[in-house]
Description:
binds fe (ii) ion; Heme Oxygenase, Chain A
Amino acid sequence: MTELHPRKMDFGFEDADVPFLWNPDNPAWSSMSNAVSFLAIGFEKMIVKAIMQAKPQLAASGVADEAMAFMRQEGHHSTAHRQHVKGLIRSYPGLQNTLDAVIGEFDLLTEATSLNYRLAYTADLEATFTPVFKLMLDHDATLFRPGDDRVASLFLWHFVEEVEHRSSALIIFDALVGNELYRMRMAPSIFAHVMKVIRIACAGFNQHVPLKERKVDSLSMFATHRTKQRIVTAFAPYLTKGTMPRAFDGLPLGEQLTALAGVVRSQMPRHKPAHEKLPALAGEWFAKYDEGYDCTRWYTAGTNGRARDAVAAGGK
Ligand SMILES: [Fe+2]
Ligand SMILES: [Fe+2]
């Protein structure tokens, strides 16, 4: 049995232009989260293929229901992020190459690595999500609320479902592979691959989205790039790719460090995501979804949405 509820969502990205700078208050965050959208398409496609490949083993594992519900959630995420990215590609056609390159990286993993490796990849990366997404969801007032409500609502839905299925990938890995040492040994190559893919997305943004629209150097989330650029622009200012603020500069340092500690903890042996502290917004989101609230327009839908806005604005 599983407690997961796959929810299919349509955020209406075809109805109007999708801005690259979807939260104008925070260009670095807009760029970073757009990169997450690109990554999600390829990563979650890989997950779906891995679970399908594992189906014969799953039948006898006792976790088949969990795996199927997990796969359905990830499939819905991948589909919704495709709609988001399609909207970006309508405005910046060169990003199609970037998307192809990102998906290609994950297709290559499916081709070239063992099922055990891809299950370890999924378990390792998914384990980091709850502490990281808690940091983001705890600061939805600045990261999500001021933005395009379709894009904000896409990420809220995705991140709360990641919190909901935070244990799934480890449960599946433990049932089918059951080798923690292997998972930990693979972690460096797994996270190197994740960073490589994000770098491909960010380099694509720098190449295909004009600086006046993206506002920042999209690669500035990488410390090595920031150092290199500082040296380059000191000698040749015309080579700047934009300013280099970080997405979380406005968030309390203590909470950023808590999230970082959570990421490290998530890779330790016998880690149990079920015991993680959860973002309050996740519980609120599930309750409102069950009441029938339109979660595709989290900040602007109906009376409830307006009531939330009034509360946030101090009841004005
Ligand atoms: Fe997902
Ligand atoms: Fe996930």
